Structure formats: structure tokens, C-alpha cells
Amino acid sequence: MTLQALPRNGKIRFGGFFLYKRYGREIGFEEKCLSLSYQKRVKRIVLFINYKDMVNYKDLGLVNTREMFKKAINGGYAIPAFNFNNMEQMQAIIQAAVETKSPVILQVSKGARQYANATLLRYMAQGAVEYAKELGCANPQIVLHLDHGDTFETCKSCIDSGFSSVMIDGSHLPYDENVALTKKVVEYAHQFDVTVEGELGVLAGVEDDVVAEHHTYTRPEEVVDFVTKTGCDSLAISIGTSHGAYKFKPEQCHVDPATGRLVPPPLAFDVLDGVMKELPGFPIVLHGSSSVPQEEVDTINKYGGKLEAAIGIPEDELRKAAKSAVCKINIDSDSRLAMTAAVRKVFAEKPAEFDPRKYLGPARDNMKKLYEHKIVNVLGSDNKL
User: Fewest CB atoms within 10 A around its CB: which of 63, 108, 143, 225?
Assistant: First the structure.
């Protein structure tokens, strides 16, 4: 009997002994026997596996989403899930979360890992925890989450490098394949107390590598079966939100006579109600929930940009969703717009400027202002620490 033959986090009876394997893999480990304990009837050999490349998120000061979501559902608010790709975005997110006393989810997409480097992102997340403490938050509640993981290998890599939460997006697959893939990720993640978000339904739009021409609403009659079979900890659903800054085509919208701006179609709250009826108290997630602030779009266009018919999700609809079982709301495009607007403004007003700090600093400040607004006025997660 070899240790490799044991299941992960499992045990096998071997003569009069139970042989345990914790956090095991098939390859790439070293064994160290730390203790030998004898009991009345059964002798147990406990082998602890010490990995050179395995990082536990708890050692980084991060938390998973389990208790965070439970409190949000009971409190009638949603946790902000802000995507970040660089230092300025991370600084703005942490500053806003600390000053508003809000828990926060730092989201990293597959594209962000490729852009910023997976190792650097892990240390940035660890630095975010320490930065929050420096800013005066004694017990920051920060999650490092993989957004739209599309393979088991990507999710596993994130878990192994210190992520406290992952999303496996099998929504593009046939239902049974989505179930199988999500279950496989859940079984691996739960060994390390990492929480998993699954998805049913398809969101339209474009964001990094996630592309869909049309959306498909989540079917409430499928959610109980999906959650039961996969064991996922939260569920992303489709009720009409979309990825990117161009969430709707002009022909899908109507014009507000008072402002002359396009108004998108309402979200399908009947679908959300149906899901909540089938899964009472279960954590629900909304993707593609940027509101595309028109003041940022106007600034970008004023200073040389060309964002035509960029439109997002009305904030009053997000406020309504946040008071339900929707306990995580994803926001990415809004921060990109805030950053771009500030940078364009500096370049237009100070064309001789070439110091990155002089344009990335204002960009960071503008993103922080946006994040604080979302936390306080849209999601209601302020003063929850």
C-alpha cells in the first residue's frame, strides 16, 4: 500500500491501522510523520503532507465567503465583488472598504492572472490584508476570488496558490457536463475550506474571455437539482444582466424623454423570485452588474473617447436585488470607466505630463469614490464589520 493510492483527504484500513492522508496529491509532495497516537482499539498513523507549492489562504489573512454571505442574506445587503488587475485598483478597493467598514471580495479573472501574473496577485492579496490593517481595520474581511474559472485546472491552480473562493463557470456546457465539472471543483476545493460559486444560465456581453451573443435566463426548476448534485456554496444566475459596458443594444432600450438617455429593459425579478422560492436562503450571485455611470462615459467622450450607446444596469434595480438573497454583486466595467475617465482628463488638461503617478493617482482616487458610492448607496454593505 502506497500513500499515492489513498484518496485525497481520505483514509484506508490497513491491517489494524487506519492510514490517513490529508491534503494529498498524487505527485510533488514530501512526507513527514508528526505524531503517532494510540487509542484503545485502533492504532492510527497520521501523516501530514507538507507541500512546497501549496498556499493556504488562511495563512494570507483571507476568508472564504460562507459566513460573509450568511450575514449578508440575513442583513438584507450584498457584498461588493470588485475586479482588479493592478495596484491602483487594489488600493482603491481596500481604501473604500476600510473607510466604509465593508467586507469585500477581490475578484481576479483568468485574463487578470495572465496580465498581472498569478504569483504577484497572490502577494497583492496578502498585501491587501496588511494594508487594510495599516489603514485601521483590525479584522478585515477580504476574499480572494477567481471570477469565471473555465476549467478544473484553472480553479485548482488558484486554490493551490491561496485563493479563498473560486467560480467554475460551466454555463456554456450541456447541463450534465456543467454539473459534473462543478462537482469536481467543489470536491477539490472543499478539502481546503475554499468556497465555490457555480452558474446556471448564460449572460450576454463581453468581458475578458467570456463572450456570449445572447442571454439565457436561469430556469428555477433546475436550481435545486444543480445545487444538490454539485454541492456548490453559491449560485450565479441570469436575470438580464450582461457583461461589459455595452450591455444592451439601442433597440432593446427606450429613451427617457427627460434626459434623452437610453433606458435598458428591466431585470427579470420573476426569475429571481422563482429561484429564491426553490432555494430559500441560498446565496445568489449577479454577474455583469456595472451601471456604466454616464458621467464617466461623458468625461471619456469629452476628452477624446468614443463610447457610443454604453449603458448599464440601473442602480435602483441593484438596490432591490441586494435586499433579497442576492448576496454578491459583481462590478468590473464601472471601475474601468472611472479609471479611464480620470486618465483621459489628465492627459487632455496636462499634455506634457508623463509621470505615471500624476495620472494613475487621480485614477485611483476616482475609482475609490466609485467604490464607496457602490458600497454605501447601492449594495448597503457599509458598517457591517
Answer: 225
Report which of 162, 99, 152 is spatially closest to residue 125, judged by C-alpha positions: 162
pLDDT tens, residue by residue, 271-324? 999 999 999 999 999 998 899 999 999 999 999 999 988 889 999 999 999 999
| d(C-alpha 207, C-alpha 332), whole Å | 9
Whole-number Å distance between alpha carbons of 10 and 24: 9
The answer on pLDDT for 365 being more than 70 is yes
Which residues are identified as catalytic? 147
Report the C-alpha gap between 241 and 174 in whole angstroms. Answer: 21
Q: Please give the model's pTM, rounded to 2 decimal places.
A: 0.84
Element (H, E) at 43: strand 43-50
Task: For residue range 150-191, list pLDDT tens digits in order.
Answer: 999 999 999 999 999 999 999 989 999 999 999 999 999 999
- The predicted-structure confidence for 223-247, as pLDDT tens digits, reads as follows 999 999 999 999 999 998 876 666 5
Q: How many CA atoms lie within 13 A of 324 on its CB side?
A: 21
SS3 content of the chain, % helix, strand, coil (to 5): 45, 25, 35
Could you give the strand order of the β-sheet that contains 30-38, starting from the edge strand earlier in sequence?
11-14, 17-22, 43-50, 30-38
DSSP string, 296-350: HHHHHHHTT----S-B---HHHHHHHHTTTEEEEEE-HHHHHHHHHHHHHHHHH-
Q: Could you give the 3-state DSSP secondary structure of residue 101? A: coil
Cβ-proximal residues to 376 (8 Å cutoff; 6+ apart), any chain = 100, 382
Burial 273-295, CB ≥16 within 10 A → b, else e: ebbbebbeebbbbbbbbbbbbbe
Contact at 8 Å (CB) between 32 and 50? yes
In whole angstroms, give the CA distance from residue 19 to residue 234. 33
Give the pLDDT confidence of 195-224 residue by residue, as tens digits: 999 999 876 544 445 444 456 899 999 999
pLDDT in tens, 4-15: 444 444 444 444
